[in-house]
Design goal:
The strands form three sheets. This protein has an eight-stranded mixed β-sheet with strand order 1-5-6-11-10-9-7-8, sandwiched between helices. Strands 13-12-14-15-16 form a five-stranded mixed β-sheet, sandwiched between helices. The chain is 41% helix and 20% strand. It has 18 helices and 16 strands. It has a domain of 89 residues: Rossmann fold, CATH 3.40.50. The chain is globular. The protein is α+β, with helices and mostly antiparallel strands and 456 residues long. Helix 2 packs antiparallel against helix 8 and helix 5 runs antiparallel to helix 6. It binds adenosine monophosphate. Adenosine monophosphate binds next to strand 6, strand 10, strand 11 and helix 14.
Length: 456
């Protein structure tokens, strides 16, 4: 290693970040609000692993989606097996027939694992693995945690970001389920204090009507291919629906003239979409139909939705979701209907900060200015009692001069300082000082605790 390299300051890698106090208090409030709101709708928390077999995401999200192709963090578990395999290959008597070689090779290569880019696939995997289809009623789950995508970092877009998501899995695809899921989301945004959110909905059809529409779209796109940028040109072949996501100004007029999915839905999908809108009206939820809302993941069908929030610039989607009937089956489970969403916590926090709704900094109630070795044990006992009363208390680990102690108490924003010297311990009477106006009083221990507990 070069000497300069050895000295280089190690920093968090590109696209990931630390969340520090007091900002972390706002994160906790957002997550706690989700827990409370979701519980009132009967959802339970599922804690999932952060990495899964790569196959899970390839099969569910789609082998040729950006997330799986370009953005995944994938590694080989047990790479040492591979080394062992290379050695064994050189061993005389090693099986020569192709099948047994391939099987042994797969084992020795180790399994490929991926840091989860999203959690719906994991929820479905867990649903199958634990036989949750036998549970009574719909299975309603929520999760909170980090996701990983190797995207180009910018404001509101990170490589490790956080989602709060929920899923409903069961036998019914009734539009009332979609309606209630969206109602719960809006209740969360309302409770968390994010104002100015807009709900966009769409239907992207089912396995019957979507392929026919995609073909029509492809034909229309081929006719205007020359006018499109290279990215959209490529998507005509790989995934024409994604052209509708384009934000390029020069492509907008062309896209507006393309065939729209709403005009190509089959009767069942049309009915489902109309019923969803009735559900939203019934629940007093304002929405806009956005025919271009197709979402990037393969597994969505029928209902898709997105919520945007102010103050976020181009990365203004704070939540995305949709219906994914058939995903559980695709992953080897029983026929199951499903719908869910994921809220981008980073962006919710950013939007709250932009609107000035940051959490108040936590208050330090009491600072203990202790002096003299004999005062310390009494201080420890007093602090334990105060904390037991739910007060936040700072007890300096090392003795300080009174002036320095009070100065630090002030800088930390403490409301009170308790002065505890050897004399105070001997007399059992403590001086408590209100830092805002330097008012002092002398109290016995029980009175002191009562006084501080009532936080005058
Ligand atoms: P998706 O899983 O792509 O449907 O995303 C759902 C939500 O997660 C989005 O609406 C964003 O709020 C958030 N999100 C997705 N990708 C990122 C990222 N790279 N950084 C921050 N938030 C993200």
């Amino acid at each position: 290693m070069k000497p300069e390299a050895a000295k280089r300051q190690i920093r968090a890698i590109k696209g990931v970040r630390d969340i520090l106090p007091p900002e972390s208090a706002l994160w906790n409030r957002v997550e706690q609000t989700a827990r409370e709101v979701f519980a009132t709708y009967g959802y339970g928390e599922i804690r999932l692993p952060i990495f899964e077999e790569t196959k899970l995401f390839a099969r569910s999200i789609g082998e040729d989606s950006d997330i799986v192709m370009k953005e995944s963090y994938t590694l080989v578990d047990a790479p040492d097996r591979f080394e062992r395999w290379v050695k064994m290959l050189a061993t005389p008597g090693w099986p020569q027939d192709a099948t047994s070689r391939a099987e042994v090779e797969e084992y020795f290569r180790g399994i490929k694992i991926t840091l989860r880019p999203e959690a719906t696939a994991s929820v479905c995997r867990a649903y199958i693995e634990h036989g949750m289809h036998t549970l009574p009623g719909d299975v309603k789950l929520y999760y909170i945690g980090p996701m990983f995508r190797r995207e180009r970092p910018q404001k509101g877009r990170y490589r490790q970001f956080y989602q709060i998501g929920a899923e409903v899995l069961g036998q019914s695809d009734a539009p009332a389920i979609d309606g209630e899921v969206i109602e719960m989301l809006m209740a969360f945004f309302d409770r968390v204090g994010l104002t100015g959110c807009a709900l966009h909905i769409n239907s992207i059809g089912c396995r019957d009507c979507r392929p026919k529409y995609v073909e029509k779209l492809r034909e229309a796109l081929l006719k205007v291919k020359d006018k499109l940028g290279p990215e959209s040109q490529r998507r005509i072949e790989t995934n024409p629906l994604r052209v509708l996501d384009s934000k390029l100004p020069e492509e907008q007029a062309i896209i507006e003239k393309l065939p729209r999915i709403g005009e190509h839905l089959c009767a069942a999908c049309r009915e489902h979409f109309a019923a969803l809108q009735e559900q939203l009206k019934l629940r007093g939820i304002a929405y806009e139909i956005n025919w271009r809302l197709v979402r990037g993941l393969d597994y969505y069908m029928r209902t898709t939705f997105e919520i945007t929030a102010p103050g976020l610039g181009s990365q203004n989607a704070v939540c995305g979701g949709g219906r994914y009937d058939g995903l559980v089956e695709l992953l080897g489970g029983p026929p199951t209907k499903g719908i869910g969403f994921a809220i981008g916590t980073d962006r919710v926090v950013l939007s709250l900060q932009e609107s000035g709704k940051v959490a108040a900094a936590p208050v330090l109630d009491v600072f203990i200015a202790w002096m003299g070795a004999a005062a310390y044990p009494a201080a420890v006992r007093l602090v334990r009692r105060l904390r037991g009363e739910g007060l936040s208390v700072e007890l300096p680990a090392e003795e300080m001069k009174l002036k320095k102690s009070l100065g630090l108490a002030d800088k930390l924003g403490a409301r009170y300082a308790v002065i505890l010297g050897e004399n105070e311990v001997a007399s059992g009477r403590f001086t408590v000082k209100r830092l805002a106006d330097a008012q002092q009083r002398e109290l016995g221990e029980a009175e002191l605790i009562e006084f501080l507990r009532s936080k005058p």
